[in-house]
């Protein structure tokens, strides 16, 4: 279970954009690319609002987010037509790696 504890997982749905299934998959991947940056931005906001951290400096929440405990974010993004980001398949293989 140690390897699983290091990963921060976020599941999210995305609505279809445009007309057709051909345009949906890139939207899912585009959304997945933004997840890690959103976590950093929210950590910075929390540090500034509750810890008195000056803008442009790293506060305790952001520092914890960037440590080895949460060193990787796996954005599990699902689209309106049942498609999913490429990260969805990755967490499924980890429990099997731990057993084998």
Low-confidence stretches: none
Distance between the termini: 13 Å
Radius of gyration: 16 Å
Q: What kind of sheet is the major sheet?
A: 2 strands, parallel
- The helix fraction, in percent, is 40-55%
Which shape, going by the Cα principal axes?
Answer: elongated
What is the tally of beta strands?
2
**How would you write the strand order of the largest sheet?**
1-2
How much of the sequence is in beta strands? 15-25%
Number of DSSP helices?
Answer: 4
Oligomer: single chain
| Succession of helices and strands | HEHHEH
Number of domains: 1
Average residue pLDDT: 76
Instruction: Give the class from helix and strand content and strand pairing.
Output: alpha+beta
Task: Summarize the SSE layout with pairings.
Blueprint: H1 2-5, E1 7-14, H2 24-50, H3 60-65, E2 72-79, H4 89-99
Parallel strand pairs: 1-2
